[in-house]
Design a protein that fits this description.
This is 13252_t:CDS:1. The protein is mainly α. It folds into 2 domains: 141 residues, Orthogonal Bundle (Peroxidase, domain 1), CATH 1.10.520.10; 115 residues, Orthogonal Bundle (Peroxidase, domain 2). It is built from 12 helices and 5 strands. The strands form 2 sheets. It has a 3-stranded antiparallel sheet. It has a two-stranded antiparallel ribbon with strand order 1-2. The longest helix is centred in the last third of the chain and has 17 residues. The chain is globular. The protein starts with 5 loop residues before the first helix and ends with a helix. Bound molecules: 20-OXO-protoporphyrin IX containing ZN(II). 20-OXO-protoporphyrin IX containing ZN(II) (ZEM) binds next to helix 2, helix 7 and strand 1. The site of 20-OXO-protoporphyrin IX containing ZN(II) has 24 residues, from helix 2, helix 7 and strand 1.
Length: 269
Amino acid sequence: MTIHDYDVVRQDIKAILLQPGYDDGSIGPVLVRLAWHASGTYDKTTKTGGSDGGTMRYSIEANDPANAGLDHARAFLEPIKQKHDWISYGDLWTLAGVVAIESMGGPTIPWKHGRKDKVESAVPPNGRLPNAEEGADHIRQVFYRMGFTDREIVALIGAHCLGRCHGDRSGYEGKWTLTPTRFNTQFFVMLTKRNWHEKKLENGLVQYADEKDQLMMLPADMAFLYDPGFKEIVEIYARDKQTFFEDFAAAFGKLLELGVNREDNATKL
Ligand code: ZEM
């Protein structure tokens, strides 16, 4: 019997996180985004989408405009897949997000293996991920479809403490915090503490800038300030790191499990 050693995979992921030439010196943020986009296609009504099939391997899903730039994340992980060829893409991509968050100072995320790569017919339709131009109604519609509550949605958006927007990927530009490779409460702190104004980019997109034009928010991020129900939770997380970490770990762990059907995987090819 072969022993599948996920701890060795974890170590191998950890070893490639720091990449001095890439963005702010770490591929952690884009790995977190890969884990989220692989999972966030889930639809609880039809029980389709989610991370189980590793379906972003297929061009239809890889070319969903929402997934622009995630080819970088997948390419960084490919040598690890080649080395441990027994691991499924769904397990590798979700585990990479977990290792990245933990290595950047975030909470321990519950994670279980057992995803299985599926054939192309399992690819979910494009357009299931949230649109950055939209507000609270759209955000609720998308995350309720996955089965999340308002509190879980706010916890999850706290991941925007990490990384940045890239003009050649989403069209937006800049980062949300001054510490884009550390997992912390800074997204909520900056959202509530700084004064935000609209800023039109040359490509026509509108984002928000702070008074120093140092940080940015997407229109969808601003919805967490404008919607009273969301704002109440934002304020809790801005002042209480422990509560944010606990809630985030549970919500992100739940996200990675959406649509994972271990019983089916054990019986079907
Ligand atoms: Zn994001 N996200 N996201 N997000 N996201 C971007 C980048 C990152 C939205 C969104 O439109 C965008 C969640 C929710 C939502 C991360 C994690 C998570 C970018 C920039 C956009 C436009 C992409 C680029 O140009 O590279 C919207 C509208 C969301 C919900 C309303 C959730 C939930 C996340 C994880 C739990 C991360 C880590 C990044 C930074 C990626 C990087 O490459 O630095």
